Amino acid sequence: MAYPATRSEAVVDTLHGQQVADPYRWLEDEKAPEVQAWMKAQDGFTRDALAKMPGRDALTKRFTELFYVDSVTAPFRRGNRFFYMRTHKDKEKAIVYWKDGESGQEKVLLDPNAMSKDAPVSLGRWVPSWDGKRVAFPVRPNAADEATLHVIDVDTGEWSKVDVIEGAKYANTNWTPDGKGFYYEWLPTDPSIPVDARPGYTTLKFHKLGEDPKKDVVVHERTGDPTTFLQGDLSRDGKYLFASILRGWSENDVYWKHPQEKDWRLLVKGKGAKYSVLAWKDRFYVVTDEGAPRQRVFAVDPKKTDRANWKELVPEDPKATLESVSLVGGHLALEYLKDVTTELRITTLEGKPVRTVQLPGVGAASNLTGLEDQDDAYFSYSSFTTPRQVYRTSVKSGKVDLWAKVEVPMDPDAYTTEQVFYTSKDGTKVPMFLVYKKGLKKDGNAPTLLYGYGGFLVSMQPSFRASILPWLDAGGIYAVANLRGGGEYGTAWHEAGKGANKQNVFDDFAGAAEYLAKEKYTQAKKLAIYGGSNGGLLVGAAMTQRPELYGAVVCGVPLLDMVRFHLFGSGRTWVPEYGSAEDAGQFKTLYAYSPYHHVRQDVQYPALLMMSSDHDDRVDPMHARKFVAAVQNTKGNSAPTLLRIEANAGHGGADQVAKAIESSVDMYAFLFQVLGVARPDAGVAAESR
């Protein structure tokens, strides 16, 4: 393909005795006019190429039917008021509603569709006060992580002109019981602070409504360490304030105090373990993987917090991973994963088993949400072939009722899901879900889309994804591999895929591809792989390590230069997960798999669609730019290499339905084209004949 020209430079660093070439470093400077021109040319070239691919009209029609739907989330109860979100068939973004009592009149509270006429903005995590009179919410320009925190009066619908707080990138609002103020994490927006150092400047502050935020009191100073996160929490009764210092996703320290006190008290110093704390009626409930890779629960008396005084309430289950714990209806609600499917259990506050909540089927469910002293609780459920459903349950009686469900134009009985276990390179058994239309012939010819993530303790659960339906209807298989690095089997599973063990993740993914071919589901030229963020690193490494296994790659908002990732965006916060090239031993590991540094001249690579965003302030888009430049300029590769840049979008992409449709059409038209998918009986690919 006649790509826009990309120059290279003879940039070579010597790191720990190793010469490291970086010919496209000039593409790191996004603000440079030359880089801006290059981005415009690449995106224009890609969109022209994608626009010519057949099947787009049918895909657009189908995705429009699937994405524009009416739905409602489970409600939050605050006082006698209920708060929830709705999507509408004729709206681009979800709207926040409220009402007095469950049968009260529904009223609009926050409508991001109407928030700005000049530039697109997104609504962050909104939090009602305990009396339901006010809601704090961050507004994010261009769907980026950077945000400004606002407060709205629920009765009048007026935004406070005083309570406007910049630097809310990491802000998590914790209201006081009287609703007169809240604690939040604050990050200075001072441009003189280097981007990679900013996370270490996070402080925990208290804001009193009606006062100048610039005078907000700092209740916990910054750590000064950009590889850490600082997070605050306040018990519902306002008696206990917590501060957690997280070192990555595997370890943290927890401090606490009464809000009126000056000094913090150490609850626990994390040494290779993580802890989360819930407080209710002068008791701490501590969820931890200390000595229990699949997690357990302790009770702690605030007057006797020494580790020797902790009382185990819920022991570790060796066959199920404890994902989360909530306090509802005077009970503990525990969300478990058992071979990657959800199980919800209820115990007393002393840990005595009460029941397992009846779920509609084998799939993914959220933990119960509700209040500590209210019997009604809610949870959502979905599976690969079941759209999201919201259920209400009585904690006391166990009764479960359907509260709301999403109506999607599809026949769930037309598809089937199976879970298989395959063997990775080192003998580890790895689970994988396969979804396809009933009647599939295992003759090695089914186009297959293999998805993975493998990091940060994130579990890939079998939840609904409407975007895969046209692929399934065209005779395709959607596969999700539950790779090491995730949290599917607890801390040990995560540790086996992080840091020095990261190569295990890539081996697990290659093992999935080999299994699919061996078992006659598909073959290399019919197999596409897809991942985003850490999953973008995954597919980038898969493409450069084992290019012969795949026919196409879709790589979204990725990390790909693992030698310099820590210098950009939120990179330093991921050093506990990956390591850093500043350390000699860790550099050796990172350089060994860094996809950007392993693009070779003499290799035929799979077709690549790189999907980037122009306002991604979490994973810097320089990774996507440099990698695409390297692959496009190889001499031995004839497969298309395309860079698509979403405008006015952050790490999660744009949050308008129309943009999601455009992105999905581009992705699947690309896959149908490069994998040669032509199924006239499925409709969506008819035009590709």
TrEMBL record:
Its EC number(s): 3.4.21.26
Domain Peptidase S9 prolyl oligopeptidase catalytic: 463-676
Residue intervals of the Peptidase S9A N-terminal domain: 4-405
Pfam families assigned to the protein according to its UniProt record, in alphabetical order: Peptidase_S9, Peptidase_S9_N
GO molecular function: oligopeptidase activity; serine-type endopeptidase activity
Gene Ontology biological process: proteolysis
InterPro entries reported for this sequence: AB_hydrolase_fold, Pept_S9_AS, Pept_S9A_N, Peptidase_S9_cat, Peptidase_S9A, Prolyl_oligopep/macrocyclase
Keywords of the record: Hydrolase, Protease, Serine protease
GO terms under cellular component: cytosol
Enzyme class name: hydrolase
Catalytic reaction equation(s): Hydrolysis of Pro-|-Xaa >> Ala-|-Xaa in oligopeptides
SUPFAM superfamilies reported for this sequence: alpha/beta-Hydrolases, Peptidase/esterase 'gauge' domain
Family: Belongs to the peptidase S9A family.
Annotated protein name in UniProt: prolyl oligopeptidase
Source organism of the structure: Corallococcus exercitus
